[in-house]
Amino acid sequence: MEDLPLAPRRPRDIDAELRALQDKARQLRTKQKAQLGELLLATGAADALDPDTLAGLLLHGLEQAKSNPQAAESWRQRGESFFRRERAGTSGAGDSKSAAASPRAARHNAEDAARPAAE
Question: HEC profile for the chain?
């Protein structure tokens, strides 16, 4: 059997690949922003708290998560249960607005989230 000459490789268009990756990253950031907005609306935080308060709460939470990993784990568990309730609530034929999504509940939840961090 004869050795066939290999065809030369086509050069990669690195610039086009980089542009495609940048477009994908931009799409992911846009989707992330939309999901964060949906989260604020679903929890009722957007109605209950002004943007400055929300920003302060998030910054405080970041500081506390760094210094107190147990608090961050507790918040994660509460978030997980919130999403489980949301999924269970949307699959049923009951009221579409759950009690967890009310502004009063969101305010109460925000106060509870800050409380373990202060202890």
Answer: CCCCCCCCCCCCCHHHHHHHHHHHHHHHHHHHHHHHHHHHHHHCHHHHCCHHHHHHHHHHHHHHHHHCHHHHHHHHHHHHHHHHHHHHHHHCCCCCCCHHHCHHHHHHHHHHHHHHHHC
